[in-house]
C-alpha cells in the first residue's frame, strides 16, 4: 500500500507542473483555430522586408531604403522561411501559435515564482488561454504574441536574478530582444533597471552590484550597436513608423484615451481584480513585506504600457493590440487577488464585510468562473466583427493579383494599404500614409495628416489605390480611411490624370490615363452662391434663431452630403461671428449637413440654428461652406455670405 501511495505521489509531483499548461494549451489551440483566418494588411509589411532580405536586397521596401517595420526580430525570424520558399502567411501563424503556447508556459512558471497557489495558477492559465485578443493577434501574423512572450520571459529572468547567488546577467539578453522587437520595448529595460536598483536599496540594503552594472552594460552594448547600425543604414535614430505616427501629441493623447477606455470597458472585471491586487501589493509594501517587491513589477509594467498607449495614440486595429503584451500581467494580478480573497484569514475583513470564510471562498470561485465566462462571451460577441476585418484584407490580396498582371517593369504604384499589394507585386511603392516613405513621415502633422499630394503625383505612379465609398445619394464617390488619400483625390492634377476602374473589385484602383482630361470636377469645384431671405439685423445675446440659407452649386463638381465611414469629403455649411472693429472671431458654430448630394446647377435649402454671442455689440455673421478634412470654400475662392447684426443686451 505504501509503495503504491509513494508511486502515486511521485507521479503527481511529475505531472502537476505540466497538466495545467497542457489543459490551457488545449483550449488555446481551439481558440487559435477559431481565428485561423484573421490577418491584417500590416502583417504583409513585415513580409515585404523579410522577402527582400531573403532575396538579397537588404531590409528595404521594394528598393526604398526605409525602416517601415517596427519589429526587427520578427522580420529576421520570417526571412529564413521566405528563403526556402515557404508561405509566409502560414509560417507567421505557426510561429505565433508556438510563442502563444510558450507564453502560456512562462506565465504559469512566473505565477509559481511569485507564489500563486495551484488553483490560482489554474485560473490564470485558463483565462489566458481563453483571452480573445491573444488568440486574434497570435493568428494575425504580426509579432504581438512573440513580443508578449519576450516581455514575460524577461520579467521572469529578472525576478530570478534579484536573489540569485551570484547574480546572473542573462535577462539583459531577453530585454535586448524585447527592445529590438518593438520601439517601446526599451521602456521595459528602463523599468527593470529602476526596479533592480530600488530592490537592492530597500530590501537588501545595498547598492547596485558589479554584476548589475555588467547586466546593464550588456544591454547597452547590444542596443548601442543596433542604434549605430540603424543610423548608418537608414539615416535616422528611430524607425520611420515612429515619425509617421507622431507629430500631433494632443491628437495622439485624445485617441490614446479613447483606445484605453475601450480596453478598460471591454475587460472591466479583469482590470478591477487587478486593481484590487495592486492595493494588496501596496499594503504589503507599507508593511515591509519582501514579496511586494516582486509583485510590484506587474502593475508597474502594465502602467508603463498604458502610458505608452496614451501618448502614442494606440491604433485603429481591433482587439486592443497594444495591450496584449500585458495581459499575462493583468491575469496574474487578477489571480493573485482571487488567491488572496480565498486564503485570507483577516478577521477584520470578515467582520467589516459581514461575510463568513466559506461564503467568501464561494464568491471567489464565482469571480474566477466569471473571469473565464467573460472571456468566452467577449470572444463570441466580437467574433463576427473581427473576422469581417480579416475578410476585408482579402480585397488587398485580390487587388495585388490584378496589379501584378497589369503593371509593367519599372512601374511605380501608390497605395494606402502598403502591405499585401507591395508584397505580391514586388513593385516600387509609394506609401501614401507614410509608414514606408521617409519624406512623408517627416512632414509636419499627425498620423495620416502629413499632406503633400504633389510629391506623390510628381512620381507619376501607374496605379493609385485609395479606399472609396459611394456618397449619400450615390452621385459621386468619397475617399475614406485616409486623409492623405482624400487630399490627393481632390487635387486637380489627380482628376486630370487618373480614372477609377469600376470593374476591378474592390473599387479602389485608379489608373493613370495616357492623356490628361482637359476639364475636371475640380476646375471650379468651390463656386457657391448663397441666398438668404430676410436676414435679421438686430438680435439679443444668448438667443438662438433659425436661418434659412439656400446653396446653389455653381461649380464643376458634385458636393457629397455624406457617406462612407469617415466624414472627410462631406460638404457642410457653418457660420462664424466676427467683431466688426477688430475682425476677431468670437464664436464658431457647428456645421450643418446638406440634405442630399448636390450636382452642378442643383440647390438645397438648409435651416441653420444660429447661436448669438453672449456679449452685446456690432458683429458680422459669416456663412461659409466646408469640404470636411480638406478646405473651406472661402479659402479656395468660393466666397461667403455676410450680414451685419447688432446684438443687444437681453
Explain how this protein is built.
There is one protein chain. By secondary structure, this protein is α+β, with helices and mostly antiparallel strands. It has 3 domains: 14-387, no CATH class; 391-512, no CATH class; 528-648, Immunoglobulin-like. The chain is built from 23 helices and 17 strands. It has helices at 2-34, 41-54, 72-83, 88-114, 118-129, 132-139, 144-162, 171-181, 186-202, 210-234, 240-245, 249-266, 268-286, 292-295, 297-312, 327-343, 347-353, 357-406, 420-425, 438-441, 453-457, 483-489, 492-497; strands at residues 412-415, 428-431, 463-465, 468-470, 477-479, 498-500, 509-512, 528-532, 538-540, 544-553, 571-579, 585-588, 592-593, 603-611, 617-627, 631-632, 641-648. The strands form 4 sheets. Strands 9, 11, 12, 13, 15, 16 and 17 form a 7-stranded mixed sheet that branches. It has a 5-stranded mixed sheet with strand order 2-1-3-7-6. Helix 7 packs antiparallel against helix 8 (171-181). The longest helix has 50 residues, at 357-406.
Helical content band? 40-55%
- How many runs of DSSP E, i.e. beta strands? 17
Q: By helix and strand content, what is the structural category?
A: alpha+beta
Overall mean confidence score, pLDDT:
90
Integer tally of domains: 3
Low-confidence stretches: 346-355
Number of helices: 23
Radius of gyration: 30 Å
% residues in beta strands: 5-15%
The N- to C-terminal Cα distance equals 99 Å
The gross shape turns out to be globular
Largest sheet: 7 strands, mixed
Amino acid at each position: 500500500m505504501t509503495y503504491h501511495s509513494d508511486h502515486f505521489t511521485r507521479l503527481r509531483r511529475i505531472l502537476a507542473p505540466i497538466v495545467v499548461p497542457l489543459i490551457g494549451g488545449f483550449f488555446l489551440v481551439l481558440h487559435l483555430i477559431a481565428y485561423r483566418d484573421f490577418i491584417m494588411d500590416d502583417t504583409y509589411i513585415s513580409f515585404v522586408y523579410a522577402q527582400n532580405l531573403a532575396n538579397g536586397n537588404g531590409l528595404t521596401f521594394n528598393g526604398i531604403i526605409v525602416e517601415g517595420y517596427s519589429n526587427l526580430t520578427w522580420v529576421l525570424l520570417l526571412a529564413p522561411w521566405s528563403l526556402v520558399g515557404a508561405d509566409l502567411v502560414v509560417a507567421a501563424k505557426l510561429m505565433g501559435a508556438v510563442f502563444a503556447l510558450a507564453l502560456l508556459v512562462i506565465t504559469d512558471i512566473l505565477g509559481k515564482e511569485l507564489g500563486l497557489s495551484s488553483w490560482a495558477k489554474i485560473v490564470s492559465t485558463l483565462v489566458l488561454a481563453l483571452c480573445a485578443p491573444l488568440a486574434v493577434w497570435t493568428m494575425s501574423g504580426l509579432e504581438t504574441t512573440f513580443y508578449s512572450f519576450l516581455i514575460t520571459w524577461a520579467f521572469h529572468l529578472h525576478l530570478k536574478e534579484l536573489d540569485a547567488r551570484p547574480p546572473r546577467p542573462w535577462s539583459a539578453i531577453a530585454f535586448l530582444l524585447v527592445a529590438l522587437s518593438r520601439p517601446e520595448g526599451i521602456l521595459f529595460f528602463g523599468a527593470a533597471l529602476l526596479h533592480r536598483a530600488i530592490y537592492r536599496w530597500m530590501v537588501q540594503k545595498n547598492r547596485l552590484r558589479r554584476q548589475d552594472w555588467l547586466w546593464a552594460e550588456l544591454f547597452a552594448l547590444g542596443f548601442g550597436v543596433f542604434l549605430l547600425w540603424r543610423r548608418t543604414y537608414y539615416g535616422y535614430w528611430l524607425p520611420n513608423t515612429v515619425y509617421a505616427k507622431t507629430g500631433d501629441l494632443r491628437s495622439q493623447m485624445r485617441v490614446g484615451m479613447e483606445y484605453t477606455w475601450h480596453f478598460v470597458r471591454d475587460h472591466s472585471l479583469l482590470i478591477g481584480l487587478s486593481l484590487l491586487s495592486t492595493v494588496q501589493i501596496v499594503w504589503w509594501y507599507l508593511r515591509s513585506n519582501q514579496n511586494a517587491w516582486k509583485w510590484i513589477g506587474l502593475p508597474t509594467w502594465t502602467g508603463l504600457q498604458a502610458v505608452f498607449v496614451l501618448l502614442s495614440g494606440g491604433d485603429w486595429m481591433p482587439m486592443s493590440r497594444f495591450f496584449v503584451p500585458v495581459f499575462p500581467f493583468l491575469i496574474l494580478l487578477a489571480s493573485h487577488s482571487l488567491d488572496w480573497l480565498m486564503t485570507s484569514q483577516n478577521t477584520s475583513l470578515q467582520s467589516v464585510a459581514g461575510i463568513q470564510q466559506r461564503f467568501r471562498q464561494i464568491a471567489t470561485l464565482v469571480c474566477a468562473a466569471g473571469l473565464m465566462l467573460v472571456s468566452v462571451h467577449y470572444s463570441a460577441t466580437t467574433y463576427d466583427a473581427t473576422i469581417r476585418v480579416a475578410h476585408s484584407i482579402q480585397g488587398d490580396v485580390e487587388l495585388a493579383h490584378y496589379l501584378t498582371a497589369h503593371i509593367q517593369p519599372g512601374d511605380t504604384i501608390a497605395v494606402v494599404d502598403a502591405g499585401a499589394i507591395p508584397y505580391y507585386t514586388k513593385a516600387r511603392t509609394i506609401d501614401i500614409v507614410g509608414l514606408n516613405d521617409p519624406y512623408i513621415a517627416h512632414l509636419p502633422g499627425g498620423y495620416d495628416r502629413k499632406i503633400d499630394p504633389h510629391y506623390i503625383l510628381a512620381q507619376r505612379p501607374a496605379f493609385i489605390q485609395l479606399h472609396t465609398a459611394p456618397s449619400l445619394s450615390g452621385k459621386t464617390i468619397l475617399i475614406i480611411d485616409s486623409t492623405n488619400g482624400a487630399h490627393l483625390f481632390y487635387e486637380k492634377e489627380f482628376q486630370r490624370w487618373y480614372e477609377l476602374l469600376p470593374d476591378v473589385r474592390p473599387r479602389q484602383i485608379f489608373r493613370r490615363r495616357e492623356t490628361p482630361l482637359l476639364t475636371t470636377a475640380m476646375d471650379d469645384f468651390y463656386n457657391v452662391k448663397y441666398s438668404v431671405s430676410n436676414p435679421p439685423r438686430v438680435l439679443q445675446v444668448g438667443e438662438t434663431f433659425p436661418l434659412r440659407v439656400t446653396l446653389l452649386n455653381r461649380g464643376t463638381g458634385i458636393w457629397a452630403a455624406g457617406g462612407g465611414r469617415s466624414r472627410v469629403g462631406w460638404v457642410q455649411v457653418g457660420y462664424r461671428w466676427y467683431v466688426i472693429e477688430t475682425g476677431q472671431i468670437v464664436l464658431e458654430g457647428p456645421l450643418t449637413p446638406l440634405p442630399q448630394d448636390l450636382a452642378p446647377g442643383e440647390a438645397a435649402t438648409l435651416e441653420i440654428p444660429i447661436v448669438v454671442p453672449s456679449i452685446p455689440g456690432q458683429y458680422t455673421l459669416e456663412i461659409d461652406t466646408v469640404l470636411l478634412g480638406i478646405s473651406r470654400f472661402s479659402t479656395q475662392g468660393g466666397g461667403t455670405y455676410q450680414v451685419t447684426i447688432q446684438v443687444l443686451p437681453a
